[in-house]
UniProtKB/TrEMBL annotation:
This is Glutathione S-transferase family protein. Gene3D superfamilies: 1.20.1050.10, Glutaredoxin (3.40.30.10). SUPFAM superfamilies: GST C-terminal domain-like (SSF47616), Thioredoxin-like (SSF52833). Residues 8-88 form the GST N-terminal domain.
């Protein structure tokens, strides 16, 4: 069994574009969990072949903990939450924790119209685009999720303190901001709080320093 105090290495894609990498990264960073990251860029048309050496799916993110490999964003977050139960990745209250996991799974499985039309792009200047059907329906559902959680918890984040649920929706914050998808004051205030978080700022700084361009993610 791997030692929880040994090094955790999170292999991720480009910080500018990789929404699935962003989720476990910001969850771990915000919780103060010690880890290192390794960027393996999307710089091949058919995907970087190095991914296959790191993960059984040939995709990132993947967490290496000694000989153990944990892949998929939410599975990584759950694994680290077990390693560091005092880090507060999930709400302490059982009902709130169930709610947080439910909306995190909804993010994992849903909102495909939004994700396909509006790729995460940290350095993208704010600009609206013509939207296909389904995008604004996704946005409305996300805003309803955030509104309900914030009303129940009182904020400042979805379940009070920054949690795994906020991490799962962090790339959506970028999407709504970059593509000008909302004008709701409550939504914008929550987005501002997330984007002001030190973990967000640290990721953003690294993303802005990257030079790789992925044309299909430059919507």
């Amino acid at each position: 069994m791997s030692d929880p105090t040994s090094d955790l290495v999170l292999y991720i894609g480009n910080k500018n574009y990789s929404s699935w990498s962003f989720r476990p990264w910001i969850a771990m960073e915000a919780a103060g969990i010690p880890f290192s990251d390794r960027v393996v860029p999307f710089d091949f048309a058919a995907g970087n072949p190095a991914f296959r050496e790191l993960s059984p799916t040939g995709r990132v993110p993947v967490l290496h903990h000694g000989r153990l490999r944990v892949w998929e964003s939410l599975a990584i977050i759950e694994y680290v939450a077990e390693l560091f139960p005092d880090a507060g990745l999930w709400p302490a209250d059982r009902g709130a924790r169930a709610h947080a996991r439910s909306i995190s799974m909804e993010m994992l499985a849903g909102f495909r119209s939004l994700r396909n039309a509006c790729p995460m792009n940290i350095r993208r200047p704010q600009r609206a685009i013509e939207l296909p059907d389904g995008v604004m329906e996704d946005v409305a559902r996300i805003e309803a999720i955030w509104r309900e959680a914030l009303e129940r918890s009182g904020g400042p984040y979805l379940f009070g303190a920054f949690s795994a649920a906020d991490a799962m929706y962090a790339p959506v914050v970028n999407r709504l901001h970059a593509y000008l998808l909302t004008s709701d004051p409550g939504t914008l205030a929550y987005m501002d709080r997330v984007m002001a978080h030190p973990a967000w700022k640290k990721w953003q700084e690294a993303a802005l320093a990257e030079t790789w361009i992925v044309p299909e993610d430059e919507a």
